[in-house]
């Protein structure tokens, strides 16, 4: 752990290096195989962020109930419980956060084989600073219900806007990063989220967190760059990564170094919550199975009962790797 902290401290002094020009990035942390969960904290409480209908289990409970496991392929699996849930109770799920915070100057790469999806399901892969929203949040993967494409976003205090003239393949939404929705970018690739993602065998998300800006890439399984496929203790460059899906440059509209602090990396699966249960989003995608055509429909139609509708509500992750600029 002390070695990791020292390497990340070195990275802070290299913040001025643009990601595209850095010669080499060294691996400072890897989460993979049987040790995947070793350096994660399990939240172990109710959902205090999206107010979802879940109980996030602590590590012991998650392991004993087999909601956090490593499968025969050596991949980490995080899932929603499929047992019976009585009315007015919540369903068990997973939220894990890295023990370590990563400073500006970090690149995260995660290979995901399967992501959760379905009515009421709200999965996310994201990062957050110690104090929210003062130290910012980066949403790398997020969606709800039967969405077909990924929604990325930044969340900050005031005085951070997403520039309208950026080089990216995604489609920008609101540009004010301090609103409830943040400054969103939608990936138009139907393999970037949900059922389409899983049918394509998953893919890789890479996030650059630098003083020059925040960039997010996604590649479906058959399009993963060779530099990532062969990466190990270091990555030489990102010349074959192409244009990012989301490009949030640092500048007069948003100073990344002032809006973001060191970030912890998170995987979680919520159910319903403020976004997925909202009738404006839930009804067009999932309809009404019950008689209550309001915010209770998401819970009543999905969370209670035997839980067989959550068979696809799981993450399967090959690895998470964090890199810092070499010096």
UniProtKB/TrEMBL annotation:
Q: Which domain of life is it from?
A: Eukaryota
Signal in keyword set: yes
Q: Which segments constitute the GH16 domain?
A: 19-284
Q: Set out the biological process GO terms recorded for this chain's protein.
A: glucan catabolic process
The stretch of residues making up the signal peptide is 1-22
UniProt-recorded Gene Ontology molecular function terms: hydrolase activity, hydrolyzing O-glycosyl compounds
Stated name of the protein:
Concanavalin A-like lectin/glucanase domain-containing protein
Sorted keywords for this record are: Signal
